[in-house]
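Lecture notes, unit on binding sites. The following record was shown on slide 14. It pairs a sequence with nicotinamide-adenine-dinucleotide.
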Amino acid sequence: MKLQNYINGQLVEPISQNYIDNVNPATGEVYSYIPDSDERDVEKAVQAAKNAFKLWSRKSAQERSQILLNIADLIEKNLDRLALAETNDNGKPLKLSKKVDIPRAVENFRFFATAILHFASESHHQPHFLNYTTRSPLGVVGCISPWNLPLYLFTWKIAPALAAGNCVVAKPSEVTPMTAYLLSELCIQAGLPAGVLNVVHGYGNKVGSAITAHSDIKAISFTGGTKTGQEIARVAAPMFKKLSLELGGKNATLVFADCNLERTINETVTASFANQGQICLCGSRIFVERSIYDVFVEKFVERTKKLVVTDPLDEKANLGAVVSKPHYEKILSYIQLAEQEGGKILCGGTTKPIVNERCKKGYFVYPTIIIGLNAYCRTNQEEIFGPVVTIQPFDNEEEAIEYANSTQYGLAGSIWTENLTRAHRVAHAIESGILWVNCWLVRDLRTPFGGMKQSGIGREGGWEALRFFTEPKNICIQLS
Ligand code: NAD
């Protein structure tokens, strides 16, 4: 199967006529081909988006909302097909795609399709003057997304951009392009006018960089690695583009002796290994108060060993394949590094899980737990982004906070304690954009989402996203 770009309302071949192999990571087999597009395809997409902007930006919020709701309905109707496509592309368990990834894509469209109906701007009164602020769409915007939650994160950007009246040139990850392609088909069915959304497939250093550098693209909303974010900022900042950068993380899980231990074990195992540990919000560094360290480690290992690593199509799978061969090799190299740094592997490691005949060439990694490392070694400082966690003891709250804040990242974290005062105190002290207390990955789409330090700039979600995708203008009128 050959995927196509979606430009000016049409599904089209890349101008180069070249394609990239698309591999199913659970089988290691090439199963489709991705357009190897370049700056010429991006140029066509930008021209289409510029033309479409005149019409789309003048539509009423209700009209735009209705079309986005149609898209949401079509994603929902095609849930099974999209979930299977996501799993074949990414390696994640099918039940996860069905329960989380695709439903969230539906929610993203519904949330922003309705949010725009309530999006209001401010006015400020002075004795003889009235200020009112308008918020207009920016024009053509670029949305670039990663492979870990493909349709979920792609739509998390596109939906607010379109709702606010912008036209979009979007690039999904070349590692997981399939559901973005299927979305293009659904957008045509939903009656999205030609050129409003354009999807250009291909490599980051061709398509992504052409989007970033294009002078008619007014803003870039990017989710991906910190290094890529730096490169995008380097090119876009001198052009004064608006930038929203959602980057890497190395999230801390802080477990205090006064936590509800059973519940903490249950939830922190999920927070460590969900989606093969490939969620930017997964807790990869666990710090446990020394008095419960041994019992925590024992129970955590026991629970982790019950997780089933198998064919993602199997209902029993808790973990499927990791996303690609290079990523598989990167994860294994970090497990080896942890051993070199003096870490002791309590379960998992570099031994390849035997899955089944279909998956014998797939990229599977056992959930891996490492102890015996200090908080400052490379294993504990660099993002691995796989099913690998480390566990370290701490002696007091100050030490726990210091460890949590010791990396260059500041995306998310979780705190486990029954002491409410401590929960607030520690949450305030941690340098992260998102913190959960006695829970993990509970999402309310109205809340600001994003990181500090090297985890990015800007926030997504709710009004933050709609403000990002609009330009405020203040008009001051003399009243008397
Ligand atoms: P990546 O940075 O390699 O790629 C992300 C996207 O950027 C892809 O579409 C890629 O093709 C494109 N790209 C690559 N080079 C580019 C360039 N020079 N110019 C423009 N675009 C370019 O990241 P990845 O490996 O796909 O994703 C994993 C990373 O994403 C991890 O670091 C993870 O923490 C991060 N992530 C962050 C969040 C968040 O919300 N903060 C969410 C999910 C993933």
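Take-home: Residues 144-148, 153, 171, 173-174, 204-205, 208-209, 212, 223-225, 228, 231-232, 246-249, 280, 383, 385, 411, 451, 455-456 surround nicotinamide-adenine-dinucleotide (CB under 6 Å).
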